[in-house]
UniProtKB/TrEMBL annotation:
InterPro entries recorded: IMPase (IPR033942), Inositol_monoP_metal-BS (IPR020583), Inositol_monophosphatase-like (IPR000760), Inositol_monophosphatase_CS (IPR020550), Inositol_monophosphatase_SuhB (IPR022337)
UniProt cross-references to Gene3D superfamilies, sorted A to Z: 3.40.190.80, Fructose-1,6-Bisphosphatase, subunit A, domain 1 (3.30.540.10)
Pfam families for this protein: Inositol_P
Positions that bind Mg(2+) 1: 70, 87, 89, 219
Protein's name according to its UniProt entry: Inositol-1-monophosphatase
Cofactor(s) needed for function: Mg(2+)
Keyword Ribosomal protein: no
Organism from which the protein derives: Hwanghaeella grinnelliae
Lineage: Bacteria, Pseudomonadati, Pseudomonadota, Alphaproteobacteria, Rhodospirillales
GO molecular function (one): inositol monophosphate 1-phosphatase activity
Catalytic reactions on record: a myo-inositol phosphate + H2O = myo-inositol + phosphate
Top-rank lineage group of the source organism: Bacteria
Cell cycle among keywords: no
Similarity comment: family membership: Belongs to the inositol monophosphatase superfamily.
Length: 271
């Protein structure tokens, strides 16, 4: 069992505290006050409250660190080399529609590298976490990516563009071509609408691979290191090392990563 760092313990406590508040609000989802941020992009009072809880908990323990948050944007800390990257409620649309599949995601970036990640699913009480060089875990159980080596045996996850997301008709058409390519060579494709959990499911071997375009740093930062520490690969569409600014994320195991990314690239070229 890996020794958890002080930073990781702080992050896990913050995620669990925010998760408890979200579960309470989820039980009263119909009474939540909801405001619109943009087309089909909703933010609830629960989302904002969870972010406030996480920020207070982390600031109390690490007052010098900065923050990059979905709702509040960036706060530069006294230590410019360390910042937390936070999605307080990944899967807001699921949450607001009463679907019990959403998560709290917290990553720590140090000197430009994500070194620690926590993804907490409060409904299932599943705490995924990883630290650089220490492996990836679900609570105390070590995680490893799937050992499957054939696309035909593999199940994939993705996110589907929708109103206001995905670069309009052109981006939607590109997605359809990629989806068609994977549909034609795989055992199936799933879309659950929570990128952080999609990536942790790759780490846990529940999916063989995941791809999505147009994600933000807080969507993928924690899941990224969890996949890597579980023995997986995370790249851009061209197979280069993934960066938080990469337009497409492709995550899978070593046995199918090259074929997976190649299929997505070649499908994009089809008419």
């Amino acid at each position: 069992m890996a020794i958890r760092s002080a930073n990781l313990n702080v992050m896990m406590r913050a995620a669990e505290k925010a998760g408890r508040a979200l579960v309470r609000d989820f039980g009263e989802v119909e009474q939540l006050q909801v405001s619109r941020k943009g087309p089909a992009d909703f933010v609830s009072t629960a989302d904002q409250k969870a972010e406030d809880i996480i920020r207070r908990e982390l600031q109390k323990a690490r007052p010098d660190y900065g923050f990059l948050m979905e709702e509040s944007g960036e706060i530069v800390g006294e230590d410019p080399e360390k910042r937390f990257i936070i999605d307080p409620l990944d899967g807001t649309t699921n949450f607001l529609h009463g679907m019990p599949h959403w998560a709290v995601s917290i990553a720590l970036e140090q000197n430009g590298e994500v070194t620690t990640g926590v993804v907490y699913d409060p409904i299932k009480d599943e705490m995924f976490w990883a630290e650089k060089g220490q492996g990836a875990f679900l609570r105390d159980k070590r995680l490893r990516v799937s050992g499957r080596t054939k696309l035909a045996d593999s199940v994939f996850a993705t996110g589907i563009p929708h109103l206001g997301i995905g670069d309009g008709p052109k981006g939607h058409a590109t997605f359809i071509r990629r989806l068609h390519g994977i549909m034609g060579c795989s055992a199936g494709v799933r879309r659950w609408g929570v990128a952080s959990l999609d990536m942790t499911y790759v780490a846990a071997g529940r999916y063989e691979g995941f791809w999505e375009q147009g994600l933000k740093p807080w969507d993928v930062a924690a899941g990224w290191i969890i996949v890597k520490e579980a023995g997986g690969f995370v790249t851009d569409l061209q197979g280069r090392d993934f960066k938080l600014t990469s337009p497409v994320v492709v995550a899978s195991n070593s046995g199918i990563q090259n074929a997976f990314a190649k299929t997505l690239r070649e499908a994009e070229k089809t008419a």
